Amino acid sequence: MKKRKHQSALAFIIIYILFYYLIILFGNHEVRLIKISGNLLSIIGALVSTLWIYQTYKSRINNQKEAVFWLQLSLGTLSYLIAELIWMNYESYRLIEVPFPSYADIFYMFQMFFYLLAFSIYYFNGKQFFKIIQFIFEILIIMVVLSTFSYYFILEQMITDPTLTGFFLFISLSYPIGDLFLFFIVLAVIFGVNGIAFKKGLIIILSGIVIQSFADSSFFYLILNDMYHAESLIDPLFTFAVLLIGYSGISAEQTVSFQTAFSFSKKINALKISFPYISSLALISYIILFDREHTVLTIGGFLSIFLVMLRQVIIILNNRQLLTHLNESKQRYQSLFDNHPDAVISLNLDGQLTSINNKFCKIMDTSSNLLIGQHLENLFSVDRDLINRHFLKTKKGLHQNFEVILKDKLRETIYIHVTYIPMYIDGTVVGVFGVFKDITELKKNTEKIHYLAYHDSLTGLHNRAFFEDSLEKEIVDSKKNGSGLAVIFIDFDRFKMINDSLGHDAGDQLLKAIADRLFSIVRKKDIIARQGGDEFTLLLKNVKNHKEIIQIMDEMMLTLNDPYHIKGHSFLTTPSIGISFYSGDHDTAVSLMKKADLAMYFSKMNGKNQYSFYQIGMEQDSANQLLIESALHHAIKNEEFVLYYQPQIESSNHKIYGLEALVRWNHPHLGMLGPGHFITIAEETNLILPIGEWVLRQACTQGKKLHDLGFEDLTISVNISPKQFQSPKLVQMVRDVIKETGFNSEFLLLEITEAVAMNHINKTIDKLKELQQIGVRISIDDFGTGHSSLSYLSNLPLNELKIPREFVNHLGVETNNAIIDTIITLAKNLKLDIIAEGVETSNQLLSLQKMGCYRMQGYYFGKPVSSKEIEELLLKNDCFLE
User: Fold this and answer.
1) Out of the domains of life, which is the source (predicted)?
2) Which CATH number fits domain 340-444: 3.30.450.20, 3.40.1030.10, 3.40.50.300, 3.40.50.720?
3) CB–CB of 578/601 below 8 Å?
4) In the beta sheet, which residues pair with residue 529?
5) Are 656 and 647 in contact, with CB atoms under 8 Å apart?
6) pTM score over 0.85
7) Per CATH, which fold does 631-877 belong to?
8) pLDDT digits (tens, 9 = 90+) for 313-347
């Protein structure tokens, strides 16, 4: 692409200048349009050149040194463009002969000024003092020679002409002198720059400067002899020069191969060395052959010889300094070679070792005397072809990187990373450098990293990435073999509460314990992974049907429902499990995981501690959940919440002694929703605070009404969520509600979870005492599923412990009975009331009574009912159940 742009620009310049000359040679100079055309061609040429250089400036914006250079060069061509516009104003608009000097000459001077500024800043930026002196002498020689010739042929006639005014003479001399200075500084930059593509651009600029100098000299010669007229043959040369300078920017963008660059550098260096001598010899030869009497020629000749001699002295001093630097460089190279932390070698073109460092001897476990002269591939028992193949490529100038294996004397495997670098002298490959790095530890670390990339660092189980990859592969295998598989998502209820209460260290131990239990359940061929947090996934391979999955799930539920014992605490965290089954249909890994996730969510929303298979329609449940979340904000305002009440029974006489207030949401589209559908969302969005306050107010209002109906000893129990309890406004809110409703606080029982009670124990004690000072009683809900410490429990200002339904459901299991018996005994010792929830059968009733627990609630006695129904029940039976 760049090459095509380069060729197109060059073709444009050639055609453009030829067209310019055609107009001059064959146009009628009496026609005004010809003059206008000539001026327009000069202006357009200057504009194109300015745009080319400005584009080069933008492409070099990240290279400050070159960017400044091209910007100043573009300002120079812009100045030339302005000068041409002024010239056209004189010649084509005002129809007068352009005076000399004129306003246009000011901008021609600016052109030269910006050119000189660009090259001067570029040349002197970062140059060493000694190099500057050497270049100055080289340029001085050329400058003396060219100045002498310039004076002899052009300037002498102008200076000695008495008719020329001072300003005319100043402007007239400024052009050739400026051209000379510009020529010299461009030469200096060409000799000093390293970038080959940039150097080619500079040579094109130099060509433009030479053409411009010739045009300037010709112009002044014609002016002095009153021979210049518009549409002169020298006019296109000015445009040609400025277009070449613009073209230099395009040329500088070209990439150059190493061989081309090296060849070009050699030519430039040869020119740099010989040009001062050639120019001095040319001057002396002219003096001898044509004019031995001219004073200025003679002075110039002697001065050029003197400068050549001084230059030789500088070169000798410079060479001595270079020899010193060369010796130092050799020592540095040898020091770097010998003390390099990696093994370093050099090979000749036959592949024989010519030099090695101590590190290479150490890797090979052999002395250098035995290694020098050997062929490298002979030192390796394996990978010989690989070593030789890369060596041959390096001989062609290509860098190579590869790995080989080396067996040490103990037959241990050593992994070596090899870098081959071609060794160049004068642009020709003469050998190969080799760097050998022992990467054995790196290999081991890479394997560790690979392990960590596919394993969970905490539990040692596979992670999500590995699980998803394995699932993809297993689906492919299942399609081939016709076997089934199951994806299982497991989320543990109440984990966050436990983690927040006991700390992350305890949470980590719990996750490890869960992982161990899961690992003990699954078959060897199955895959278990931790997704993150308290979510785990299972991949059951080669399962035939749902029955086989159910057997595994039943065993899993039993294992995961056993209490966990961590840091002196005993607690339960139950699983909510979702299952998606693949039997050769069109499911993908993503869809299977999504279905398992939906099924898990279904388990969580429908009571937790269960497993559910994915069924069509669960997506709608998920969509409903989003609908719930968006509508929850308006539920209180729209009076959509209602309270249901479940009787609490004194089983010895079947008397209703209390009611637990349970919130329900009468959703306008989804119907009556239990708290499991929205309480979690309410907690996450902080809406639990206004909802909780509404529940408390409604419960107290209903309690006051029932007391007024004559049921004066009836207790109202209200659940307090974790966020409610953590609120600094809780105590004041309870106080205000009691005052507003007129409910007797002695009959208000606030239920908090065990985890909430144990979180920040000192603050909890203070808050519970404040509540009790109001007259409110406190109950620990779901006691035994959390992580109570007995020493703390004795300090908590409590009134009641509540046995959770999880324990009641498993009455008859020996270990479970022992836990319930312990809770009852503990409550009696601490002089606390005890109540069991979730009682659904007469056997459970009798078992609890035998253990000494008589207060109960559950479906056996009655489901939660509306306030109207509970009033009717109480009035009908006078607080007694039949």
Assistant:
1) Bacteria
2) 3.30.450.20
3) yes
4) 462, 537
5) yes
6) no
7) TIM Barrel (3.20.20)
8) 877 877 887 788 878 777 777 777 777 788 888 88
